[in-house]
Design brief:
CATH architecture of the largest domain: 3-Layer(bba) Sandwich
Number of domains: 3
Radius of gyration: 24 Å
Helix content: 25-40%
Bound molecules: NADPH dihydro-nicotinamide-adenine-dinucleotide phosphate
Distance between the termini: 64 Å
Structural class: alpha/beta
Shape: globular
Strand content: 15-25%
CATH superfamily of the largest domain: FAD/NAD(P)-binding domain
Largest sheet: 7 strands, mixed
């Protein structure tokens, strides 16, 4: 638009912001992105990517142990935490450069600066001490771990951000929370040899997942040696004379550990960026309120990703960015589709899931068929590892539509991605049944469970 410095100004250089900037610039729009920390955002810098690298690192002890059954003698292994952190840093720096380059290569401009809204078309760049103007503004500033000021001694605690870069690997850690982050980090630290306790306030970890998976993962984690204390919360955290941390739990038990990590959810980054001054509406949690097209109450200001507190997942932010481009620049109003999102928890074993859990399906459908298989994978026949894989399909008994698919076991995340396609397409159990199995794989169970394990009719298991 004539009169403005840019057609689009993006605040936040994470997955969502960078995607929107890159695609808009490739359309020939004049685009700039401001990022105050590092390009790549939570996912690349202190989330999904370093997490997955640490998951790989933490899996080696089991691989070494499993090798014996296959005839290998593996000498005693040792682990160097500082080397892992340094190698992770190198990889993150490489990806960060690619993110920045992707914007610039498409013709967009990048600023390493905090950006504050001055009015509905102006942004003040703090590091540059100047104001620029834009026709459209997109806020994609993400979120950060929720603090816990009510916990006495919370200042001694760390969050996932710090966990990635600890100077020393702790001997013992307590993690508070029962969601994705808490469960993934509990498995990472345990795998790296840390004495790990998970403290969760609810009855069972991973609230939003299928109960079968939650229970089975809980059991398997305990069997590996991760202590899960639930329902429980910490009452206080105190530094003791040895420099370690004492934690009093709600049941009266005291734990002594080297680190306490809080993983109790994430909150949107919306403070001190001029939103209130411009009149952008915020919700109760501080999240930016948007309509179905990611537009705020100010019609040239948009928001996508975690800052809107819809679904806090990287692929969702990227999808929202693509829909924003269609709506704002292609005259094709497109609402993001948040239905049937496949997801994985990189616990050990992994969870991969898409669609309705058994409990949710029963609430919505009068006749539900459950197909369930629990078995030892072929890999563990010779390794001798006592670990079961669990697969479950939730099917609408009247239409045969597959409503949910849930997996616990190796590569469950990879399988969830593929299962996302038939579930999104609304395929039926009959479509699964007439699909040829790939043999020998674990995934073949998904197309060979011919008879329901049980049905649930009007809430009653029959
Ligand atoms: P989650 O929302 O998944 O879990 C938060 C946990 O903290 C819940 O178990 C919650 O309990 C508990 N909790 C909340 N408040 C308190 C409190 N005051 N005291 C004690 N416990 C509390 O958040 P995470 O931080 O684990 O992850 C944030 C988001 O990041 C996730 O929702 C997910 O979308 C995304 N993510 C995705 C990953 C992936 O795709 N693999 C990996 C990591 C993160 P309750 O259940 O009772 O509410």
């Amino acid at each position: 638009m004539a009169g403005y410095d840019y057609d689009l100004f993006v605040i936040g250089g994470g997955s969502g912001g960078v995607r929107a900037a890159r695609v808009a610039a490739a359309l020939g729009k004049r685009v700039a992105v401001a990022e105050e920390y590092r390009f790549g955002g939570t996912c690349v810098i202190r989330g999904c990517v370093p997490k997955k690298l640490y998951v790989y690192a933490s899996q080696f002890p089991e691989h070494f142990a499993d090798a014996a059954g296959y005839g290998w003698t593996v000498p005693e292994a040792s682990f160097d935490w500082q080397k892992l952190v340094a190698n992770k840093d190198k990889e993150i720096a490489r990806l960060e450069a690619i993110y920045k380059r992707n914007v610039e290569g498409s013709g967009g401009e990048t600023f390493h600066s905090r950006a504050v809204l001055v009015d509905r078309h102006s942004v003040y760049l703090v590091a540059e001490d100047r104001t620029v103007s834009a026709d459209q503004i997109l806020i994609a500033t993400g979120g950060r771990p929720a603090a816990h000021p009510a916990l006495s001694g919370h200042e001694h605690c760390i969050f996932s951000n710090e966990a990635f870069d600890l100077k020393e690997l702790p001997k013992a850690i307590m993690i508070e929370g029962g969601g994705y982050v808490a469960v993934e980090f509990a498995n990472i630290f345990h795998g790296l040899g840390v004495d790990t306790r998970l403290v969760y306030r609810g009855q069972e970890i991973l609230g939003r997942f299928d109960m079968d998976l939650r229970r089975s993962l809980h059991e398997t984690m305990e069997k590996k040696g991760i202590r899960i204390l639930c329902p429980a919360v910490s009452e206080w955290v105190r530094k003791n004379p040895e420099g370690r941390l004492d934690v009093l739990l709600s049941g009266g038990q005291t734990l002594t550990v080297d680190q306490v990590m809080l993983a109790i959810g994430r909150i949107p980054n919306t403070e001190n960026m001029g939103l209130e001054g411009v009149g952008v509406e915020l919700g109760k949690t501080g999240a930016i309120v948007v309509d179905q097209y990611s537009r705020t109450n100010i019609d040239n200001i948009w928001a996508i990703g975690d800052v809107t507190h819809r679904v806090q997942l990287t692929p969702v932010a990227i999808h929202e960015a693509m829909c924003f481009i269609e709506t704002a620049f292609k005259d094709n109003p497109t609402a993001p589709d948040h239905d049937t999102i496949p997801t994985a928890v990189f616990s050990q074993p992994e969870i991969g899931t898409v669609g309705l859990s058994e409990d949710d399906a029963i609430k919505r459908y009068p006749d539900v068929e459950i197909y369930r298989a629990s078995f030892r994978t072929m890999r563990h026949t010779l390794s001798g590892r006592d670990e079961k894989m669990l697969m479950k399909l939730v099917v609408d008994g009247s239409t045969r539509k597959v409503l949910g698919a849930h997996i616990l076991g190796p590569d469950a995340g990879e399988m969830a991605q593929l299962l996302g396609i038939p579930l999104k397409a609304g395929l039926t159990k009959d479509d699964f049944d007439r699909t040829m199995a790939v043999h020998p794989t674990a995934a073949e169970e998904l197309v060979t469970m011919y008879k329901p394990t049980y049905r649930v009719k009007n809430g009653e298991r029959v």
